[in-house]
Structures are given as C-alpha cells and as structure tokens.
Write a structure and sequence with these properties.
Oligomer: single chain
Radius of gyration: 47 Å
Number of strands: 7
Number of domains: 3
Strand content: 5-15%
Mean pLDDT: 81
Helix content: 55-70%
Strand order of the largest sheet: 2-4-5-7-6
Shape: rod-shaped
Distance between the termini: 96 Å
CATH architecture of the largest domain: Up-down Bundle
CATH topology of the largest domain: Rhopdopsin 7-helix transmembrane proteins
Number of helices: 13
Length: about 475
Amino acid sequence: MPLIPLDTHTALYVVGVVYLLMSGLVWTIVRRHHDGTATSLWCGGGVLIGSTYLLYALRDSAPRFWTLLLPVALGLLGVGLRICALLRERRKGQWWREAMALTALAIVLSLAADLGGVSLRRPLVGGLMAIAAFSLAVLAHQVGRLPTGRGAELISGAYAFLGATYVLRLLGTLLGLIPPPSLRPTLDLVLVIAGGLVAGIFGNVGYVGLALEGTRLRREAQARALAQEQVQREAAEAQAAALGERLAERDEFVRVLAHEVRQPLNNASAALQGVEAALQAESQQDRAEAQARLQRARKVIGHIVGALDNTLASTTMLASIQPLSPRDADVNMLVELVLGDLDPMQRSRVTRSPSTHARTAAMDIGLMRLALRNLLANALAYSPAGSPVALSISDSDEPLGLVFEVRDEGPGLSADLQQRLFERGVRGDHGLPGHGLGLHVVREVMRRHGGHAGWAPNPPGGSVFRLWLPLIEEA
C-alpha cells in the first residue's frame, strides 16, 4: 500500500490548490479589516507557494526549467514575501529590503546550484528551503509575543514542521538514504508534501487569527478612544454649562449692583444737595435739617458700600477656584473693624462678650470682616429698634476652632426659610430692601476658610447665627 492514498503528482497538485484557495480565503476574510500591505504580502506569498506545488506536479510532463528550477525560485520568493508580511506585523517593516535581499540571494544560489549537478543542487535547495521555513517560524513566534499576535504561534508551529521535513530530507540525502530525484512516494517526499499541506492550512488559519485579533484590539482601542472623547466632550459641555451659569450670575450681579447703587446714589445726592442749601442758611432749624440729611446720606452710602462689597465678593473672590491664603490676624482688631463698618447710630446696640483665649487666628481678614458685618447688619435691621444685638467669640474644642455668635431679638425665621437660609437670592418677607446676597456671602466665606455657618433660634425670641472658623497653622 502506498504511503499516501494519492499518487505524488496528484498530492502535489492538491497541496498547490489548498495554498491558492486558502490564500484567497484569507484575502476575502481580512482584507477589509486588516493592514492592506501585510495582507497582500501574505496572500501573494501564498499564491507563489501554491504555484510552486502546481509546477512540481507537472514533473516529467514539462521542461525541467518549469518543473524544477522555477518552482524553487517561486517557493523561496513566496516565503520571503510572507516574512515581509510578518515583519510588518511586528512593526519592523523597514527591514523588508534586507529580507528581500536575502531571498534574492537564496534564489540565485538555488539556480547556480543546478550547474553543479544533482549532488550539489539537492542538498543546497533542501537546506535553503529549511532555512526559509524556520526563519518564517521564528519570526511568527516573535510576533506571537505581541498583544496582537494571537494566532501567530499556529503559523510558527506549521512552518517549523515544514522546515523539519526539509531537514530530514537533507539528512537523508547527505547520508545516502534517499534515492535519486523522482516523484516516487518515498518517506522523505511524503513528509515534505505533508509539511506543505500543514503549512498551507494551519499557516493561513493562524494568519486569519492574527489579523482578527489585531482588528479586535484596534476596535477596542478605538472604542476606548471614543469613550474618552465622549468623556472629554461631556466635561467640556459641563464646563461650558458652568461657564454659562457663571456668566448668567455675573449678569444678575451686575443688574443687582446697578439697582442697588443707582437709586441710593440719587437719594444720597439729593440729601447732600439739601445739606448744601441748609449750610448756607443761618437758622438753627436749618442746621438741624442739615444734620438729619447728612445722617440719611451717610446711611445710604453705607448701604451702597455694603451692596458693593457683597456683590464683588460673590463675583470675584468667592467664585474663584484659587485657594485662600489665610494669614494670622488679631481677633480683636477684626471685631473693631467690623464695628467701625456699622451705622454709627446703631453701633451702640451691639454688645461684645469675648471669652476666647485665642488672640489671633489664620484667616482672610477682609472676607471674615465682610461675613461678620453682614450678620450684624442683618441683626440690627431685622430686630426691633433699640433692642440689643450680642456678639460673642468663644473657643470650640470638638472640633478645634473659634465660634462667632450673633444674637438678636428679632422675629425669627419661618420653617421654610430655615431650610434655604444661606442660598443666593433667598430673603425673608419683612419688607426690607435687598437681594438675598448677604447670608449667601457669609456661607461662602466660611466654606472658603474650611469652616461653616449655621442658624439656631434664640430662646427668648429671635435668631442666633454661628460661624465656626477652624484654628489652623499659617499657610
């Protein structure tokens, strides 16, 4: 029984057809998804190798050049093209010139060996084919180590087997165990044909796996890039929305500022004009009228200054993303500055009861001055005329800090207002002018300091506002 079920001519023909069909299948599957150059080199090499087997199958029925010399050259060139394809897969595509130069040298040697007769040609051609197959196997193994190289190990194994069959045939030739060249189904020829069949099937299947794995990883990378781009786009949209809100707040603040300043300035101007007219008179009644007008003008101007401070604080320092740079400031000096900001006619209503041991604290004294001024001004405005407003400063151990308390005997707050007290634009229904910025500024000042602001009812009636300022080292 023959070693193979087909005669060797038919077997070579089958291997050649397998190579051609598999190369066409690879091209059809991966050409739209994988690197076009690498795919063309691989499939082109497969066509040349398949043509080699088809020409070998014509042995004894066509001239020797077409069935012996040309097939060897085409086979070496086909393997060289596949080596170039794997070099490109390995991101070493710049080495294709060296690979093709070595391939050309191997082809020249195979053609020149024919001049030395069969004793030289047969071992030399067998050795060249073995080197070519093993080179492709080693390169495929290196590609298999890459993240995209799954499938390349199958190529490596298939061509390593093909190379081994040529080595066995070379050893048999050198040892004189193989008869003169013929297409009789000897063991060495059967192994070479089997090696070609294995390489033709599993080598191409491995390349399909390599290409599809690379495609999968590229698509995953594209998906990650798209997801990252989406995140960046959403962040940009959120930033744009936040910027739009800031711009809207700025426009609102400008409107508030214009409203708060324009009419009071007109009132102050009218009052000062009346003062000027009264000062030109000599009667005691006119002087008293001038004094009253001066008091009204001073009160209006104080209102304007407070509105400017709150509005500018809301639009600049408090909206800034830059951290505060607190410095040690004298607590008593802070209180004196705040009292100096109040209406002189109302200042005497404020009682002080400092009981803290801390003489200094780390703070932005300008912002803390504004926060305390807002609390005291609100307490004086909302509590009955002549009623006292108490300012106390005490130590807090848990957590460590200073507590500023402002107590008044006003009407207190409704339950609904208590929940939204420190929000921007929230005001009570007591009929006093304002735009709900004062307590919002207080909360933001304390937040920037790492502290907090709170409210509690005053048991006799009224409100207690508490500011907790952490005691920290100087920044």
